[in-house]
Amino acid sequence: MAPSNPSGSIHDFTVKDAKGNDVDLSIYKGKALLIVNVASQCGFTNSNYKQLTQLYEKYKDQGLEILAFPCNQFYGQEPGSNEQIVEFACTRFKAEFPIFDKVEVNGEGAAPIYKFLKSSKGSFFGDSIKWNFTKFLVNKDGKVVDRYAPITSPLSIEVTKSPRFLPQTISEDMLETTDDKSYNSISNILFCNLLQKDIKKLLEVS
Question: What family is it from (predicted)?
Answer without folding.
Answer: Belongs to the glutathione peroxidase family.
